[in-house]
Amino acid sequence: MRRITTALNTAYTKVNYKQSTNNYAAHYRLQQQRFATLSASASTCWNCQKQQQNMICASCGSLQDVNNQINYFELLSFPTKFTMQQQELTQRFRQLQARVHPDKYSNKSDREQSNSADWSSLINKAYKTLATPMERGQYMLQLEGEQMPQDNSALNKEFLMDMMERNEEVEDAEDAATLQQLNVQLLQELEAHAQKLHGHFEAKDLVAVKATLVEMKYLLSIQASIKQKQQQLLGS
Ligand SMILES: [Zn+2]
Protein backbone atom coordinates (compact mmCIF):
# COMPACT_ATOMS: atom_id res chain seq x y z
CA MET A 1 0.00 0.00 0.00
CA ARG A 2 2.73 2.41 0.99
CA ARG A 3 4.65 1.62 -2.18
CA ILE A 4 1.61 2.47 -4.27
CA THR A 5 1.00 5.73 -2.44
CA THR A 6 4.57 6.77 -3.10
CA ALA A 7 4.33 5.73 -6.74
CA LEU A 8 1.11 7.67 -7.19
CA ASN A 9 2.56 10.76 -5.58
CA THR A 10 5.74 10.57 -7.61
CA ALA A 11 3.81 10.20 -10.84
CA TYR A 12 1.65 13.11 -9.85
CA THR A 13 4.58 15.37 -8.94
CA LYS A 14 6.33 14.60 -12.22
CA VAL A 15 3.29 15.49 -14.26
CA ASN A 16 2.74 18.61 -12.23
CA TYR A 17 6.26 19.86 -12.41
CA LYS A 18 6.26 19.74 -16.19
CA GLN A 19 2.84 21.29 -16.34
CA SER A 20 3.56 24.07 -13.90
CA THR A 21 6.41 25.46 -16.01
CA ASN A 22 4.21 25.27 -19.11
CA ASN A 23 1.31 26.76 -17.24
CA TYR A 24 3.31 29.67 -16.04
CA ALA A 25 4.38 30.61 -19.56
CA ALA A 26 0.84 30.14 -20.85
CA HIS A 27 -0.54 32.17 -17.98
CA TYR A 28 1.86 34.98 -18.69
CA ARG A 29 0.88 34.98 -22.36
CA LEU A 30 -2.78 35.09 -21.42
CA GLN A 31 -2.24 38.11 -19.22
CA GLN A 32 -0.52 39.78 -22.13
CA GLN A 33 -3.35 38.77 -24.40
CA ARG A 34 -5.91 40.48 -22.20
CA PHE A 35 -3.87 43.60 -22.31
CA ALA A 36 -3.36 43.32 -26.06
CA THR A 37 -7.04 42.82 -26.85
CA LEU A 38 -7.96 45.77 -24.68
CA SER A 39 -5.46 48.07 -26.31
CA ALA A 40 -5.79 46.98 -29.92
CA SER A 41 -8.67 44.99 -31.36
CA ALA A 42 -7.50 45.43 -34.95
CA SER A 43 -4.05 45.63 -36.49
CA THR A 44 -2.60 46.94 -39.72
CA CYS A 45 -1.85 44.63 -42.64
CA TRP A 46 1.93 44.39 -43.20
CA ASN A 47 1.37 44.47 -46.97
CA CYS A 48 -1.40 46.99 -47.77
CA GLN A 49 -1.40 48.85 -44.42
CA LYS A 50 -5.17 48.61 -44.14
CA GLN A 51 -6.78 47.87 -40.79
CA GLN A 52 -7.89 44.27 -40.48
CA GLN A 53 -8.44 41.56 -37.89
CA ASN A 54 -8.17 38.31 -39.80
CA MET A 55 -5.55 35.70 -40.50
CA ILE A 56 -5.77 36.60 -44.18
CA CYS A 57 -6.13 40.29 -45.06
CA ALA A 58 -9.60 41.03 -46.42
CA SER A 59 -8.22 43.77 -48.70
CA CYS A 60 -5.12 42.28 -50.33
CA GLY A 61 -5.32 38.60 -49.38
CA SER A 62 -1.87 38.33 -47.79
CA LEU A 63 -1.29 36.01 -44.87
CA GLN A 64 -0.79 38.02 -41.70
CA ASP A 65 1.79 37.48 -38.96
CA VAL A 66 0.79 34.89 -36.39
CA ASN A 67 -1.07 36.12 -33.35
CA ASN A 68 0.29 33.94 -30.54
CA GLN A 69 -2.00 35.58 -28.02
CA ILE A 70 -5.16 34.51 -29.76
CA ASN A 71 -7.68 32.55 -27.70
CA TYR A 72 -7.75 28.95 -28.99
CA PHE A 73 -11.54 28.85 -28.93
CA GLU A 74 -11.74 32.02 -31.03
CA LEU A 75 -9.13 30.69 -33.42
CA LEU A 76 -11.27 27.62 -34.09
CA SER A 77 -14.52 29.66 -34.07
CA PHE A 78 -16.03 28.19 -30.93
CA PRO A 79 -17.54 29.95 -27.94
CA THR A 80 -15.36 29.58 -24.83
CA LYS A 81 -17.37 26.70 -23.39
CA PHE A 82 -16.31 23.37 -22.00
CA THR A 83 -18.73 21.24 -23.99
CA MET A 84 -17.20 20.54 -27.36
CA GLN A 85 -18.51 18.77 -30.42
CA GLN A 86 -15.53 16.64 -31.32
CA GLN A 87 -16.48 16.14 -34.98
CA GLU A 88 -17.17 19.82 -35.49
CA LEU A 89 -13.84 20.69 -33.86
CA THR A 90 -11.94 18.33 -36.14
CA GLN A 91 -13.77 19.68 -39.18
CA ARG A 92 -12.94 23.32 -38.36
CA PHE A 93 -9.38 22.38 -37.56
CA ARG A 94 -8.95 20.81 -41.01
CA GLN A 95 -10.58 23.76 -42.77
CA LEU A 96 -8.33 26.20 -40.96
CA GLN A 97 -5.21 24.13 -41.65
CA ALA A 98 -6.12 24.02 -45.33
CA ARG A 99 -6.30 27.82 -45.48
CA VAL A 100 -2.76 28.30 -44.18
CA HIS A 101 -1.18 25.13 -45.56
CA PRO A 102 2.51 25.72 -46.47
CA ASP A 103 1.91 24.21 -49.96
CA LYS A 104 -0.39 27.14 -50.74
CA TYR A 105 2.37 29.61 -49.94
CA SER A 106 5.37 27.93 -51.52
CA ASN A 107 5.41 30.53 -54.35
CA LYS A 108 4.75 33.49 -52.06
CA SER A 109 7.05 35.85 -50.19
CA ASP A 110 9.35 34.62 -47.41
CA ARG A 111 7.20 36.42 -44.90
CA GLU A 112 4.06 34.58 -45.97
CA GLN A 113 5.90 31.26 -46.08
CA SER A 114 7.10 31.69 -42.56
CA ASN A 115 3.67 32.96 -41.44
CA SER A 116 2.07 29.88 -42.91
CA ALA A 117 4.35 27.60 -40.89
CA ASP A 118 3.68 29.63 -37.73
CA TRP A 119 -0.11 29.55 -38.16
CA SER A 120 0.01 25.89 -38.94
CA SER A 121 1.80 25.04 -35.71
CA LEU A 122 -0.41 27.35 -33.63
CA ILE A 123 -3.55 25.75 -35.08
CA ASN A 124 -2.17 22.28 -34.25
CA LYS A 125 -1.47 23.34 -30.70
CA ALA A 126 -4.92 24.88 -30.28
CA TYR A 127 -6.57 21.75 -31.66
CA LYS A 128 -4.63 19.42 -29.37
CA THR A 129 -5.47 21.57 -26.36
CA LEU A 130 -9.19 21.75 -27.11
CA ALA A 131 -9.58 18.13 -28.22
CA THR A 132 -8.97 16.49 -24.82
CA PRO A 133 -11.26 17.31 -21.87
CA MET A 134 -8.36 17.42 -19.40
CA GLU A 135 -6.30 19.89 -21.44
CA ARG A 136 -9.34 21.90 -22.43
CA GLY A 137 -10.32 22.20 -18.77
CA GLN A 138 -6.84 23.30 -17.74
CA TYR A 139 -6.76 25.85 -20.56
CA MET A 140 -10.12 27.29 -19.52
CA LEU A 141 -8.88 27.51 -15.95
CA GLN A 142 -5.90 29.51 -17.17
CA LEU A 143 -8.19 31.80 -19.13
CA GLU A 144 -9.81 32.58 -15.79
CA GLY A 145 -6.36 33.47 -14.46
CA GLU A 146 -6.16 30.36 -12.26
CA GLN A 147 -3.75 27.42 -12.04
CA MET A 148 -4.00 23.73 -11.26
CA PRO A 149 -3.22 23.12 -7.57
CA GLN A 150 0.32 21.82 -7.00
CA ASP A 151 -0.62 19.32 -4.28
CA ASN A 152 -3.37 16.91 -3.25
CA SER A 153 -5.15 19.27 -0.89
CA ALA A 154 -8.10 19.58 -3.27
CA LEU A 155 -8.77 15.85 -2.91
CA ASN A 156 -10.62 14.07 -0.18
CA LYS A 157 -9.12 11.06 1.58
CA GLU A 158 -11.83 8.76 0.36
CA PHE A 159 -10.98 9.49 -3.26
CA LEU A 160 -7.26 8.92 -2.63
CA MET A 161 -7.95 5.61 -0.89
CA ASP A 162 -10.14 4.59 -3.79
CA MET A 163 -7.40 5.46 -6.29
CA MET A 164 -4.87 3.38 -4.37
CA GLU A 165 -7.20 0.41 -4.40
CA ARG A 166 -7.79 0.86 -8.09
CA ASN A 167 -4.08 0.93 -8.75
CA GLU A 168 -3.71 -2.31 -6.80
CA GLU A 169 -6.44 -3.86 -8.91
CA VAL A 170 -4.47 -2.98 -12.03
CA GLU A 171 -1.28 -4.41 -10.54
CA ASP A 172 -3.06 -7.61 -9.57
CA ALA A 173 -4.89 -8.05 -12.87
CA GLU A 174 -3.57 -11.10 -14.68
CA ASP A 175 -5.58 -11.28 -17.87
CA ALA A 176 -6.73 -9.04 -20.70
CA ALA A 177 -10.42 -9.39 -19.83
CA THR A 178 -9.92 -8.02 -16.30
CA LEU A 179 -7.88 -5.11 -17.62
CA GLN A 180 -10.49 -4.39 -20.25
CA GLN A 181 -13.17 -4.32 -17.57
CA LEU A 182 -11.13 -1.91 -15.46
CA ASN A 183 -10.59 0.26 -18.51
CA VAL A 184 -14.29 0.43 -19.36
CA GLN A 185 -15.06 1.49 -15.81
CA LEU A 186 -12.39 4.21 -16.01
CA LEU A 187 -13.70 5.55 -19.31
CA GLN A 188 -17.15 5.89 -17.75
CA GLU A 189 -15.72 7.76 -14.79
CA LEU A 190 -13.71 10.08 -17.02
CA GLU A 191 -16.85 10.81 -18.99
CA ALA A 192 -18.76 11.54 -15.77
CA HIS A 193 -15.95 13.87 -14.67
CA ALA A 194 -16.10 15.72 -17.99
CA GLN A 195 -19.83 16.23 -17.45
CA LYS A 196 -19.17 17.54 -13.96
CA LEU A 197 -16.53 19.93 -15.28
CA HIS A 198 -19.03 21.34 -17.73
CA GLY A 199 -21.41 22.09 -14.85
CA HIS A 200 -18.68 23.64 -12.71
CA PHE A 201 -17.52 25.92 -15.53
CA GLU A 202 -21.11 26.98 -16.22
CA ALA A 203 -21.55 27.77 -12.53
CA LYS A 204 -18.12 29.49 -12.51
CA ASP A 205 -17.20 27.33 -9.52
CA LEU A 206 -13.44 27.30 -10.02
CA VAL A 207 -12.75 25.52 -6.72
CA ALA A 208 -14.83 22.59 -7.94
CA VAL A 209 -13.20 22.84 -11.38
CA LYS A 210 -9.77 22.41 -9.83
CA ALA A 211 -10.84 19.49 -7.63
CA THR A 212 -12.39 17.73 -10.62
CA LEU A 213 -9.32 18.30 -12.79
CA VAL A 214 -7.04 16.86 -10.10
CA GLU A 215 -9.29 13.81 -9.84
CA MET A 216 -9.17 13.43 -13.61
CA LYS A 217 -5.40 13.52 -13.49
CA TYR A 218 -5.44 10.53 -11.12
CA LEU A 219 -7.91 8.66 -13.29
CA LEU A 220 -5.75 9.31 -16.35
CA SER A 221 -2.68 8.04 -14.52
CA ILE A 222 -4.50 4.78 -13.73
CA GLN A 223 -5.60 4.57 -17.34
CA ALA A 224 -1.95 4.87 -18.37
CA SER A 225 -1.06 2.02 -15.98
CA ILE A 226 -3.77 -0.14 -17.55
CA LYS A 227 -2.42 0.55 -21.05
CA GLN A 228 1.10 -0.27 -19.91
CA LYS A 229 -0.03 -3.54 -18.38
CA GLN A 230 -2.05 -4.41 -21.50
CA GLN A 231 1.07 -3.96 -23.59
CA GLN A 232 3.10 -6.10 -21.20
CA LEU A 233 0.54 -8.87 -21.53
CA LEU A 234 0.65 -8.62 -25.32
CA GLY A 235 4.43 -8.77 -25.28
CA SER A 236 4.71 -11.82 -23.01
ZN1 LIG B 1 -3.61 43.71 -46.83
UniProtKB/TrEMBL annotation:
<comment type="similarity">
    <text>Belongs to the HscB family.</text>
</comment>
<keyword id="KW-0143">Chaperone</keyword>
<feature type="domain" description="J">
    <location>
        <begin position="71"/>
        <end position="143"/>
    </location>
</feature>
<dbReference type="GO" id="GO:0001671">
    <property type="term" value="F:ATPase activator activity"/>
</dbReference>
<dbReference type="InterPro" id="IPR036869">
    <property type="entry name" value="J_dom_sf"/>
</dbReference>
<dbReference type="Pfam" id="PF07743">
    <property type="entry name" value="HSCB_C"/>
</dbReference>
<dbReference type="Pfam" id="PF00226">
    <property type="entry name" value="DnaJ"/>
</dbReference>
<protein>
    <submittedName>
        <fullName>L-3-72Do</fullName>
    </submittedName>
</protein>
<dbReference type="GO" id="GO:0044571">
    <property type="term" value="P:[2Fe-2S] cluster assembly"/>
</dbReference>
<dbReference type="GO" id="GO:0005739">
    <property type="term" value="C:mitochondrion"/>
</dbReference>
<dbReference type="GO" id="GO:0051087">
    <property type="term" value="F:protein-folding chaperone binding"/>
</dbReference>
<dbReference type="GO" id="GO:0051259">
    <property type="term" value="P:protein complex oligomerization"/>
</dbReference>
<dbReference type="InterPro" id="IPR009073">
    <property type="entry name" value="HscB_oligo_C"/>
</dbReference>
<dbReference type="InterPro" id="IPR004640">
    <property type="entry name" value="HscB"/>
</dbReference>
<dbReference type="InterPro" id="IPR036386">
    <property type="entry name" value="HscB_C_sf"/>
</dbReference>
<dbReference type="InterPro" id="IPR001623">
    <property type="entry name" value="DnaJ_domain"/>
</dbReference>
